[in-house]
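Q: Hi! First time doing this. I have a protein sequence and I read that you can turn it into a structure. Is that right? Here it is:
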Amino acid sequence: MICDNLLNPKAPKPNQPPNPTDYERSIMSWYALYRACHTEDYDYINKAMSPPEPITNIAGPGQFKGRRIGIIGGGLAGLSAAFELRKLGFDIEIFEANKERAGGRVYTFYFDREKQYYGEFGPMRIPVNHETMWHYINLFGLETIPWIQSDPNAFIYLHQVRVRNDPQGKNVMKYIYPTYRLTGWEAETPWQELGYYGIEAPVLQAPPSVRSEIIRVLPRYSRQLLFWDSLNVRQMFQWRKLSQDAINLLSNLFPIGGEFLYNNYVDFVQEYYPVNFWYMYQIKGGMVNLPLAFINSFTSKDTSRYYPGIPAARLGNVSYRPGYTVKGIYGNADEKVSVAYTVSDSESLKIESFDSIVCAVPFSVLRTFDINPIFSSIKMQAIKEVNYGNAQKTLIYCNRRFWEEQGIIGGGSYTDLPVTTIWYSSHYQKANSVNDPGVILGTYNLNLDAVRLGNMTEEERITKIKRDVEEVHGLPAGALDSIVTDYKTQNWNSDPLFRGAFCYFTPEQKKLFSWPMTQPEYGKKVFFAGEHVSALHRWMQGALQSGMESANALAYASRAQKQVNTQK
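A: Yes, that's right. Below is the predicted 3D structure, encoded as C-alpha cells:
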C-alpha cells in the first residue's frame, strides 16, 4: 500500500500560525491524516489523546480536605497529578530529587542569563493532536511557535554522499540510492514512500477500531495488535519484504526506529500512526515553562485563574520539595503508606506517612527503591524488565549561524555518522543577520550511538561532534573550531536521577506489562504515573495524561473508601 497523498496532495495545505486555536489544530490534524491516507482515524485518535474525565465529576471540590497525598517525582506526570488532586482538597507533598532544576526530563538549557540562546535536552516538539498537552498549554496561557520538522535545505549525508533534503526525495534517489543494493521497485520508490510502506501501511490493513489500540492501554488487545506486538522493527521490515539495504537506508532516515531495530514495532509505529510529525509546535522561551507554570500555580494567590469555579478555601495545599530523594515505599498496618527519603546531600533517612501516594518516577529509578511489602508479582516483574532507551544530546553555541549561511532554517539533517541527527533552532528564523550567535543540537542520537558518543571523554566527544557536523555540512575540517564557543551534553543513561531517556518496549511487553503497570498497589493506596505507564511513550502527552488518569484513579478509590467508612 502506497499513499498517493503522501508526496502529491491535491488538497491545499493549511496555515500553521503561532498560538493556534483548537479549531486551527483540528484542521492541521485532519490534513496530516489526509496526507497519510487515513482520515477515518481522526475521531479515534482525538479520543485517545484527549484528557480523561474531569476529576470533579468523581468527587466534589474540597471533599477530601485533611487527607495527605505523597507524590514521588516532580516531572510532568507528578505535577499534573498534583494539580488535579488539589481540586478535591487533598494536601500534597511532591518529592523531587533534583535540587538544581525543575521539570524532570523536560530540560531546557540556557547559555545566557537573558535566556535568548537555548536548546532542549528533553522533549522539544508538540504535535498538534496531543490534546492533553494542549489542554494545559491553553490553561496556563503559554505561547507557542511552530516547530519546523523539515527544511529542504537541510542535508542527508549517507555513505559519504551529501544531498539536500528535497520534499520529493529526488536527491536521495538520484545520488544516494546507487550506493545501496536496492531491489528494482525499491530503487524506483522515494524514501518517504518506502518508510510509509514499512512503518505505517501494515497497521492500515486493520480497521480503525483495531489500529487505535496502538495508542491505548487496555486489559486485553486484539489478535492483530498482539501480532504486531510480537515483532521487532526489523522483523516488520522483513515481513514487508524490504531488502537489508533498504532497511539500512531507512534506519538512518527514521532513527527512532532505526536505532531500535530490535525493539517493539508497536512502540515504534505509535510515533507515526497518529501522524505526530506533520504539524508540531514548541513553547516560546523553552519547554521548561510548562513545568514551571504548574509549580507557580501551586503558590499563586490568583487561584481562579487555574481553578475556575472552585473557591480557594476548598483547594488543597501543594508543597514542592526539590532535593528530596525517595529511597523506599512501605505499606503500614494502619492503612497508611510511608515514604523514606533523604534531603539534599544528607544521608539521614526520614520517614513520612500518607493516605495514598502517586509514584511518578521511571521504573528505571523505582527498581532500586526499598519496597516492603513488595508489589504484586507482575508489577515487580515490569519494574525489573521494562526496557528503557538511551538518548544523548549535545547543544553547541555558535558565534554565528553558519547553517543559515547555507539556507537552513529549522528542521534536521540526517546522517549515518555517529551524531545521527542535527537539529536547527526554529526560533532564530527572524534574526537580522547570520552573524548573530545561535544554538543548534549538534547531535541527537539514540541507543547504541548515544552510549558510544556519550561515553567518550568530554574533549574527544566535542571534537568528534564538530568533525561530524562539518562533514555533514561540507565544511573544511576544523571550520567549527572558531565558531563553536560553548557546548553542553546530556547523556540520559548516565544521569543518576533518570538512568535512561524513555521507555521503549521490547517485543510482547505491551501485552505483558502495559495494563498491569497502570494498576494500583497496596489495596489501592499506591498509584503510578509517567510516560512509561502511558500508551504514548517518550512524549509529554503521555506523562500528562497518565498523571491525570492516576489522579482520577486515586479519587475513585478515595471516594469508595469514604463511603465504606461512612457505613461503619
